[in-house]
Amino acid sequence: MSQTNRLDNERVKILGDLHGEVMVYQPMTITEISPGGAQIETSFPLQLGSLHDLRLQLGGTSVVVKGRVAHAQVTEVEQEQVVYESGIEFVEPSERVSAAISAFVTEVRARQET
């Protein structure tokens, strides 16, 4: 790294409080899905009303969609494992993401009807 770049990227001490958030993808199980949202299960609680980026593996297609937690509850407590169930409302998905979710839902319905 050149001296100029090093000076441009020099860190400064924060004398007060500076807070942020880290976004970490954690595993979840999707139990229900529609074009408007999903029911998910996690091993950690999600705060009501919070926004999250969700990575969905829809068959051969992977999409990321923003979702708001509409409801959340503990559903199972077994020994040292807790399962949290949350209802997620998709927030302004792109046309590509909406189309991928709708196509996946249609495909799953067709398989369930046969």
Description:
The structure is a single chain. Helices cover 22% and strands 42% of the residues. The chain is α+β, with helices and mostly antiparallel strands. The chain has one domain: predicted glycosyltransferase like domains (Thrombin, subunit H, Beta Barrel). It has a 5-stranded antiparallel sheet, covered by helices on one side. The protein starts with a helix and ends with a helix. The relative contact order is 0.18.
Shape: extended
Classify the fold: give the CATH topology.
Answer: Thrombin, subunit H
Count, helices? 2
The residue ranges in which pLDDT falls below 50 over 5 or more consecutive positions are: none
Number of domains: 1
Query: What would the average pLDDT be, to the nearest integer?
Result: 89
The number of strands is: 5
Largest sheet: 5 strands, antiparallel
Radius of gyration, whole Å: 20 Å
Assess the beta-strand content as a share of residues: 35-45%
What is the architecture at the second tier of CATH?
A: Beta Barrel
CATH class term: Mainly Beta
Strand order of the largest sheet: 1-2-5-4-3
Structural class: alpha+beta
**Share of helical residues:** 10-25%
Gap between N and C termini: 61 Å
Order of helices and strands: HEEEEEH
CATH superfamily: predicted glycosyltransferase like domains
